[in-house]
Amino acid sequence: MTGQHRAAVLGSPIAHSLSPVLHRAAYAALGLDGWRYDRFEVDEVALPGFVGELDPAQWAGLSLTMPLKRAILPLLDEITPTAASVEAVNTVVFTADGRRRGDNTDIPGMVAALRERGVTSVPSAAVLGAGATASSALAALAQICRGEVTAYVRGPARAAEMRQWGERLGVSVRTADWADAAKALGEPLVVNTTPAGAADPLAGAVPDAPGALFDVLYDPWPTALAAAWTARSGAVVGGLDLLVHQAVLQVEQHTGRTPAPLAAMRAAGEAALAAH
């Protein structure tokens, strides 16, 4: 990968992204002095032009956040089976022969973050919310959940979408109305994919001996739900855990160096959040 020393995260909005902090910490720990990692405000309309102007001789790859994870698909030469399974790409690698390969590190990142907290297999699970993150959560649960996943969503359209994702990913998905979301908290594993504040009203319904909570948010942290969960001694996996684990895989793909420095990346992320 000689000569490829640039990478960046693209999205809109992007100013809040911790990706530059994590990737730069990795480069420093790996001694990659000539590497740069930036952030660029890019929406779906601007994406084709932006990507088309990148010189693959200089660029190693990209990280993609919302709303670009599906918009990037027509611009790629190939995508991995993992990315194809959820029709979402968060990682682009520019190969030595100039091709653009898309991958999804959110899914293995979720599995790795759960494994780090001792969650490797559960008999059933619940997902709060629908959308791109929820479909990635279902793909991760396909690897660790032995039984049914209940998705708590608003409206029949989102319910139908989650059942379709379940069929596609090989997960038995039952849907329930968001008004009953407190019932989710008794499951061995709860994955919260909702926007900031949406699950706060559930904090008072956390059971006395909860299972594991995976809350994909990292700012603000802890969420009301995560704080209540911790107060009852339940295992909590946070959004920073996910962000770090998916970024580790991105760094390894972009730089060709393994293993990426997980501890240094997490420490940099924690410091950035504490200072903010």
Descriptive account of the structure:
Helix content is 37%, strand content 19%. The two termini are 35 Å apart. The chain is globular and about 55 Å long. The strands form two sheets. A six-stranded mixed β-sheet has the order 2-1-3-5-6-4. The longest helix is centred in the C-terminal third of the chain and has 17 residues. The model has no long low-confidence stretch (mean pLDDT 96). Helix 5 packs parallel to helix 6. It is α/β, with parallel strands linked by helices and 276 residues long.
Helical segment count: 9
Order of helices and strands: EHEHEEHEEHEHEHEEEHEHH
Class computed from helices, strands and strand pairing: alpha/beta
Uncertain parts? none
Report Rg.
Answer: 19 Å
The percentage of residues in β strands lies in 15-25%
Helix content: 25-40%
Keywords for this structure?
single chain; 276 residues; alpha/beta; six-stranded mixed sheet; six-stranded parallel sheet; globular
Summarize the structure.
The chain is α/β, with parallel strands linked by helices.
What topology emerges from the helices and strands here?
Blueprint lengths: L5 E6 L7 H12 L5 E6 L5 H6 L6 E6 L13 E2 L1 H6 L4 E4 L5 E4 L2 H11 L8 E4 L3 H13 L4 E5 L2 H14 L3 E5 L11 E4 L19 E4 L8 H8 L3 E3 L1 H17 L6 H14 L1
Parallel strand pairs: 1-2, 1-3, 4-6, 7-8, 7-10, 8-9, 10-11, 11-12
Antiparallel strand pairs: 3-5, 5-6
Helix pairs in contact: 1-8, 1-9, 4-5, 4-8, 5-6, 8-9
